Amino acid sequence: MTHIAIIGGGPTAIYTLKGLTRARKAVSITLFEREPWAGPGMPYRDGTNDPAMLANIASREVPRVTRTLAKYLHACDDGFLRRLGLTRDVIDEDSFYPRVVLGSFFTAELAEVVARLRGLGHTVTIRTKARVTDIVPARDGVRIEWQSTQRPEKARFHHVVIATGHDWADYDEEGEDESALLSPWPAERLKALSGEVGILGSSLTAIDVAVTVASAHGAFEGEDGDTTTYAVRGSDDPFRLTMMSRKGLLPEADWYYPLPLPDLAHFTPAAVEDLVATDRSGLLDRAFALLVEDLRDLDPDYAASVDLSSPEALSKSHFAPRMSSDLWEYARANLVEAEEGRRTRRAVPWRVALLTAHEVFEDLIPHFDEADLERFHNSLKPIFTDGYASVPHPSIRRLLALHDAGRLELVRIGSALDVSETGGKTVIGSEGEMLRFDAVVDARGQRPMRLTDLGFRSLSRSVRPGWEKGGYSLTIEGLEKGTVQCLAMPVLLRRRPFIQGLVNAAEMGETAAEAILAELPAPPMPRPGLTSMKPGLRLAR
Ligand SMILES: Cc1cc2nc3c(=O)[nH]c(=O)nc-3n(C[C@H](O)[C@H](O)[C@H](O)COP(=O)(O)OP(=O)(O)OC[C@H]3O[C@@H](n4cnc5c(N)ncnc54)[C@H](O)[C@@H]3O)c2cc1C
């Protein structure tokens, strides 16, 4: 029997399991999760995250495992919904839910997909409180070593999928004393913060921090109606928040777009294939020229309002009006536009074109040379990220409420930061300015990592640089392609800058499963119930 190990028990692992339900031959799958239960993944785990933290993905956008999120919620009884902080009338395919609700959904979906696999005759073992410590490639398979509650253990597998997800290991940024910065997790710790609180970043995680600190000292009101307000409890002055971001901008409010996204006419996957096939030099500029044609056709007003002479010029002119306007007034106007778009289900053409374009770029980026990659990261990537990382409307309303209550400001800081601690204060120095805080939370989100940062020492020693073409397979001396696949998104981030998010988790899981299925011998599966399957044999230790 083929033995498969999946390391990590979050959404990517669940989508991998879903893909493996297509196996035509019985397989044995072992899933390792270091936490006490598998399923929710890091951003959706109760305890790590506060119930006030919202997901930025609506039910209709969450790729299916066995059913939609809204269908799952409708199947829950009223008592359970109450515990999740929901009432039945708010459940629909367009709503945004607290992230812990998605955690409960993925936990249930894991149980569902495991039941399906077992029903099909496969063996599935879920090992919780099992932290994988090393991956050791060998001629006859791959040895996984893990730490269980009792002791170190090991077993051998034919295929290994690394789905370890988010990693907040210490980063060594020059000039930054990381010990002076607080982690946004677990959320519980944020509730104790008071005084002048700095938040590095202004996107989803930074909003989470602001809302969690604010909720600990007061309450948002009017969230069911048009206007959200915020008031502290009691009469004291417990906290003031300052978000700090490179551009000094807030994220945009989630805007309506049709699903599936309409194809572009010029900048298409086929056109990109042609570009790559003909000549790799100047790839970014040649791809950009195609995108420009689409922007001119689809949204002439937008095209006329920006500088389309180069990716860099577009980036500068795209953000310029926002950077020169009052950011809170811009946020108010943007929220009105986004609400109107959702109500009328009308999409803004340039937004949809850029959203589609970022998906086409995903296939192109791995072909960029280092110079194009660097240019892309500094020019188009911020535009695309701004588009797809828009946030739920209640999150923008809460930020506006905090600002109106005199509790929140946002300042622009440069990219090179000086972080230090002096006289009990955390000092952030940037472009000659010094900002002093009682505490600073680093909410800049997941940063790229190297494979070696995952801490699997034997694997790091065996892997050859570069990836197998068209997938997530690592190149390892003496092992077949597809034996070890790395879906750990921090490691993929530099070459796949849009890899975060549930849509990508699903794509990665499906692709990894496909690579394993391609290696399986293919006699037809015995029909479940007619033939008893042997329990999974552990290979030689
Ligand atoms: C704060 C935050 C909010 C987000 N919100 C959204 C959102 O609203 N919508 C969206 O689409 N995306 C969101 N994302 C993006 C997120 O990347 C994905 O949605 C998703 O979590 C990726 O799933 P994953 O399984 O790859 O990783 P994770 O969710 O990180 O899961 C990995 C799992 O592996 C386990 N693990 C790690 N190392 C080991 C080990 N050595 N041994 C055993 N187990 C291990 C971890 O405990 C964890 O359970 C958010 C990300 C963050 C950080």
Summarize this entry quickly.
With 541 residues, the chain is an alpha/beta fold. The protein is built from 18 helices and 19 strands. Helix 12 packs across helix 14 (380-388).
What does this structure look like?
This is Putative NAD(P)/FAD-binding protein YdhS. It holds the Pfam family NAD_binding_9. It comes from Silicimonas algicola. InterPro entries: FAD/NAD-bd_sf (IPR036188), HpyO/CreE_NAD-binding (IPR038732), L-asp_N-monooxygenase_NS-form (IPR052189). Residues 5-166 form the FAD-dependent urate hydroxylase HpyO/Asp monooxygenase CreE-like FAD/NAD(P)-binding domain. By secondary structure, the chain is of the alpha/beta class. It has 3 domains: 2-47 and 105-167 and 448-519, FAD/NAD(P)-binding domain (3-Layer(bba) Sandwich), CATH 3.50.50; 178-250 and 393-442, FAD/NAD(P)-binding domain (3-Layer(bba) Sandwich); 269-388, no CATH class. It is built from 18 helices and 19 strands. It has helices spanning 11-20, 69-75, 78-83, 99-119, 187-190, 204-217, 269-278, 283-298, 300-305, 311-324, 327-344, 349-364, 370-378, 380-388, 393-404, 457-462, 489-492, 502-519; strands spanning 2-7, 27-32, 123-127, 131-138, 141-147, 152-157, 159-162, 195-200, 218-221, 229-232, 239-245, 408-412, 418-422, 425-430, 433-437, 439-442, 463-467, 474-476, 484-486. It has a 5-stranded parallel sheet. Strands 12-11-8-16 form a 4-stranded parallel sheet. A 3-stranded antiparallel sheet has the order 4-5-6. Strand 1 (2-7), helix 1 and strand 2 (27-32) form a beta-alpha-beta unit. Helix 8 runs antiparallel to helix 12 (349-364). The protein is globular, with a radius of gyration of 24 Å. The two termini are 16 Å apart. The model is unreliable at 526-541 (pLDDT under 50). Flavin-adenine dinucleotide binds next to helix 1, strand 4, helix 6 and helix 18.
